[in-house]
Specification:
Chain lengths: 163, 701
């Protein structure tokens, strides 16, 4: 049994392993970065450390939307470096058995398959388990099958320039 | 960290130092092959190298070092003469040693390098048999007495004579080792190495530089050495556990046949020496006998300390803000107290910053040391004669700069040798001395490190650059010189093995600018030489900056990048096809609004879909359509900076203050345009972006 943090982005529910989550913060004091890619919400000062914050709505191809009272920043720590993920709200901590997680992408989603680790059914609704490492990988200007396709990159560039 | 790793690390540190010295001395020796002092020193270096690596169990390494030692032993005794061939073999062997040490430091051990041919070559040239110094391993001597039983070799006699001439005294130390047989050699070796640190060891019986074959090989030991230290000092060297019945005898001279006769009196035993603790005396980890003493500190610790000082600087700034906020607001006494404390905090922080910074400083010589070898090898390969002049090696630079500077400097030197210095025939035909000159000079000037790499070669061929760049006829010389900073630019027609690959000055300039936040300047004397000057900040992580505000966000501009700040009347801005202009003294310069630059969409939208739209073009595009982009804003301040040599004025809302900022890197993905050289956190926790003024603006042609 592993613990997961379950959160909402848009209409759907997602979960990430709790292990690498260092902190959950309210959405405040995020400084926008001029000319940064669209999926970057900004940077955050965490006790002197400057942490980039990824907007998961943009990352998932949803409309950006204004942050609400429920918005949270999940601070994920991987290999000593921290990154924030802006989500529309944190729901609960789930305990899931590995066997209960079905592999393969969710049936109705525009989410890229490589971001998804699996799907679990929790109280009759689906929770999409994210591949946290891939989520972070996407931040870098990745190439090839593991990263975003060139089309996505171009679209993003256009967005950056044209707004 | 395990003991083993600690040992390995200490070994690597020491070995790298030894190797560096070795390389340096070898090159000196090449120029001055009759210099016996150099031969002696190299002998000692190879000896230490051999002993250190044998002690930690690197057999290949120690074997090769041993061969070198043998060679230099024969050289110093005059039994061998240093010729071209031998020197090459020696240098080759020292390269192999370097490679092995590099492997060891990568955790690969010393076995991956084939030393057989090098060993054979050295043995052949030195006329030494294949067997490992077998003749030196003689039978153990008889009981210690008033004379040294073992015969001294001619070389040892020579060394002893020299020592006597220097005014040193000759001693014979004899002792026995007790305790566990396995520990006898280490004990004896400890005495031996203690002595080596303070005295000039001529010979030991049995030879202690390698473990003896039999277990009781070290039961009785005799060491012959010379020293000018008082005997009480010498006694400390053999105050070692399980070393028993030590007897230090002063020898009165070297009679015929090299058999040393005992002096009249025996020196006092160890019990007479005052509180001699071998651990405190040996000073092994420090490895230094300087008058102030020194310790080795893990550089990671220094980096941590530096980070902490950075945070302290931020706290100090915060405190300063608090203090000025309190002035006039709270009770007067409290405000005064806070002000006082803030003042001393500021002083202490400043001094601490300085002190910690100094611990990170190393003399630039550590970098320079590898260049003589580089120049030697390259000039031979190119068939040119080149003399290298190094100066200012004592100039101290931040250790983080050393590595980052290595490639750019190497490249500049290669450029000089390959493109700059002419062949001997060409030089003579041109009325120049046959040997070209390459100089590397470092100094600290003002708040900067200045490094000049110069040569007296042909300089830049401006006509050739003009041709290759297909430059317009009216292009000035200065503009032409700037072409060599363009990516991929090279005037070299044939791709040479050296620097003519088109990855040239642009790489140097980019590295220096982006990694080191420095500048590269060129001074070209056509036909007479080229000097490349690199200007670097003293430290990389703290930056004196001007804080400016634009659209409610703070940005920092490094003070060094600012030519001046000016008052700007909105009416003085004149729209042009490319954007806006304003008068600055005699000159019309582009006037660029920072907010437009950083948020083109907010001001009307740049040309969508262009993946690498130049920032300025976007900004200008925003201002163009019918002038509606020209919002009637009250810009009052301008910061004058340069990009690619062109001045421009950056328009901002407010000049806030000057302050020291601790730079933190900004993740690559957030900064694809490289508009920022980093970010910093202000005293109040606010994040500011540090603008890279040379990148921020792509000025139109």
């Amino acid at each position: 049994v592993k613990q997961y943090i379950c959160f909402q982005v848009g209409e759907a529910r997602y979960a990430l392993p709790l292990g690498p989550i260092a902190q959950v913060l309210r959405f405040e004091n995020v400084t926008p970065v001029p000319m940064a890619p669209a999926f970057v919400e900004g940077i955050l000062n965490l006790g002197g450390e400057v942490v980039p914050v990824i907007n998961l709505r943009s990352r998932f191809g949803l409309e950006r939307g204004a942050p609400s009272r429920r918005s949270r920043v999940l601070v994920v720590e991987r290999e000593g470096a921290k990154h924030g993920l802006l989500v529309d709200g944190v729901k609960e901590i789930l305990e899931l058995e590995d066997a209960s997680i079905l592999s393969g992408g969710p049936p109705l989603s525009n989410l890229k398959a490589e971001l998804v680790a699996g799907v679990a059914k929790v109280r009759e609704s689906l929770v999409i388990i994210l591949e946290d490492a891939r989520l972070l990988e996407g931040e870098a200007p990745a190439r090839g099958p593991a990263g975003r396709g060139p089309a996505a990159e171009e679209a993003e560039e256009a967005e950056e320039v044209g707004g | 960290m395990s003991d083993e790793r600690r040992l390995l690390r200490a070994f690597l540190e020491e070995t790298e130092e030894l190797l560096e010295k070795l390389n340096h001395r070898l090159l000196e020796l090449e120029k001055d092959s009759a210099n016996l002092e150099l031969v002696h020193e190299i002998f000692r270096l190879t000896h230490s190298l051999k002993s250190e690596s044998a002690l930690i169990g690197f057999a290949n390494l120690s074997e090769l070092a041993h061969r070198l030692e043998d060679v230099f032993e024969r050289l110093r005794s005059g039994a061998l003469l240093l010729g071209r061939e031998l020197l090459d073999a020696v240098l080759g062997a020292s390269d192999l040693i370097q490679e092995m040490v590099a492997r060891v430091s990568r955790g690969e051990g010393d076995q991956g390098v084939d030393i057989r041919s090098a060993v054979a070559e050295l043995s052949r040239l030195a006329g030494i048999g294949g067997a490992r110094a077998a003749p030196r391993r003689q039978a153990a001597p008889g009981a210690a007495g008033g004379s040294l039983p073992a015969r001294l070799s001619d070389a040892e006699v020579l060394l002893a004579r020299e020592a006597l001439e220097r005014g040193e005294l000759l001693y014979a130390l004899s002792f026995r080792t007790a305790g566990e047989p396995a520990m006898r050699y280490p004990r004896a070796y400890l005495v031996y190495s203690n002595l080596e640190r303070v005295a000039n060891v001529l010979k030991s019986v049995p030879p202690l530089d390698l473990p003896p074959e039999g277990e009781d090989g070290c039961a009785e030991v005799q060491i012959l050495f010379s020293s000018d230290l008082p005997e009480a000092e010498l006694a400390k060297t053999y105050h070692v556990e399980d070393v028993v019945a030590p007897e230090l005898v002063r020898l009165e001279g070297l009679p015929e046949g090299g058999r040393a006769e005992a002096g009249a009196r025996a020196a006092e035993g160890p019990e007479a020496s005052p509180a001699a603790d071998p651990a405190s005396r040996g000073g092994r980890p420090a490895g230094s006998r300087g008058p102030h003493g020194s310790v080795r500190v893990d550089t990671a610790k220094l980096d941590d300390l530096w980070q902490l000082v950075g945070e302290l600087v931020t706290c100090k700034a915060r405190f300063g803000k608090l203090s000025s906020g309190l002035a006039g607001a709270g009770p007067a006494e409290l405000a005064q107290d806070v002000e006082k404390i803030t003042d001393s905090l500021e002083r202490v922080t400043g001094r601490m910053q300085q002190a910690v910074m100094e611990t990170r400083m190393v003399p630039i010589a550590v970098l320079f040391n590898k260049f003589p070898r580089l120049v030697r090898d390259l000039s031979r390969k190119l068939g040119k004669e080149v003399e290298l002049q190094l100066s200012g090696g004592e100039t101290e630079i931040d250790r983080s700069l050393v590595e980052a500077l290595s490639d750019p400097l190497t490249h500049l030197i290669r450029n000089s040798l390959d493109h700059g210095i002419e062949t001997v025939e060409q030089r003579i035909a041109g009325g120049k001395p046959a040997a070209g000159r390459v100089s590397i000079a470092a100094q600290q000037r003002g708040g900067k490190i200045v490094i000049e790499v110069g040569d007296d070669g042909r300089g830049l061929d401006l006509d050739r650059i003009r041709q290759v760049a297909q430059a317009a006829p009216e292009t000035t010389d200065e503009e032409l010189i700037n072409f060599i900073f363009q990516p991929g630019f090279s005037t070299r027609q044939s791709v040479s093995e050296l620097s003519g690959r088109g990855v040239g000055m642009d790489v140097v300039a980019t590295r220096v600018k982006e990694n080191l936040r420095g500048e590269v300047l060129l001074a070209n004397l056509p036909g007479r030489g080229l000097t490349v000057t690199i200007l670097l900040p003293l430290t990389l992580t703290i930056l004196h900056s001007l804080l400016v505000a634009s659209s409610g966000q703070y940005y920092a501009i490094p003070i060094r990048d600012i030519e001046e700040t000016v008052q700007v009347e909105p009416t003085s801005l004149r729209p042009t096809r490319a954007g806006e202009q304003m008068a600055l003294g005699e000159e019309e310069v582009p006037a660029i609004r920072l907010e437009t630059l950083l948020a083109p969409s907010a001001a009307g939208g740049g040309p969508a879909g262009r993946p690498e739209a130049e920032s300025l073009a976007a900004a200008a595009g925003a201002a163009l359509p019918g002038g509606e982009g020209l919002a009637p804003r009250g810009y009052r301040h301008g910061v004058v900076a340069r990009s690619k040599g062109q001045r421009y004025c950056l328009l901002v809302d407010e000049l806030v203050e000057e302050l020291d900022l601790v730079i933190k890197p900004l993740a690559e993905v957030l900064n694809r345009r490289r508009l920022f050289s980093g970010v910093s956190v202000l005293g109040d926790g606010r994040i500011v972006f540090i603008l890279d003024t040379s990148r921020l603006v792509e000025l139109p042609e």
